[in-house]
Task: inverse folding
């Protein structure tokens, strides 16, 4: 999945560059074209926006969370590895929420009743989101086609995808991947704090 997305991104980048060169009279990129190219390349990594309902009836819109580092975890209650991740994400949530991390567990197939029943047996500290089949299919398509769960995406405070992983992130079974996620979270939170200081 990651390779497919990477190839698509490279194809789009070359397409943009080709168009800019094609429409330039002297085959050089002007300042205006350079700015347009920079904006287009920046938008490639922009996390697709969505609005979903949480188990507590709160409404979450991703773009409204800019200014936070957001970990999106696509999962389902019937998925064994997804269940195994929950304690790890609870730990991350407790460690970093006050510093600016938000974790969103997005169920790809469960409804509100199923999620409520699930949380009677499993403690989940972070928001659990759900939507109807049409909404979920659209979101999964926008995120490059999420065909397997769990799948996770880390989004920086500017709304860009900076890290993704197709599979379970388990500290004991795959410490390297878990450490990579923690590193990216801490880096994102550090960048957020530096940006806040610069603005002041």
Result:
């Amino acid at each position: 999945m990651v390779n497919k997305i990477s190839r698509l991104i490279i194809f789009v980048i070359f397409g943009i560059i080709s168009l800019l060169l094609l429409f330039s009279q002297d085959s050089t990129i002007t300042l205006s074209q350079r700015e347009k190219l920079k904006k287009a390349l920046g938008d490639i990594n922009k996390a697709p926006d969505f609005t979903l309902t949480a188990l507590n009836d709160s409404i979450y819109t991703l773009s409204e969370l800019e200014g936070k580092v957001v970990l999106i975890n696509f999962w389902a209650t019937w998925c064994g590895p997804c269940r195994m991740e929950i304690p790890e994400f609870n730990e991350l949530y407790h460690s970093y929420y006050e510093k600016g991390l938000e974790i969103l567990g997005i169920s790809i197939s469960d409804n509100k009743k199923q999620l409520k029943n699930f949380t009677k047996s499993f403690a989940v500290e972070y928001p659990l989101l759900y939507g109807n089949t049409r909404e979920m299919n659209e979101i999964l398509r926008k995120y490059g086609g999420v065909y397997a769960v769990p799948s996770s995406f880390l989004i920086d405070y500017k709304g860009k995808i900076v890290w993704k992983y197709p599979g379970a992130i388990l500290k004991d079974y795959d410490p390297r991947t878990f450490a990579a996620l923690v590193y990216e979270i801490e880096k994102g939170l550090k960048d957020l704090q530096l940006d806040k200081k610069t603005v002041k």
About this structure: Strands lie at 51-54, 59-61, 69-75, 101-107, 128-130, 151-155, 161-166. The domain at 51-199 is CATH 3.40.30.10 (Glutaredoxin). The chain has two domains: 2-44, 51-199. Residues 28 and 89 are 49 Å apart (CA to CA).
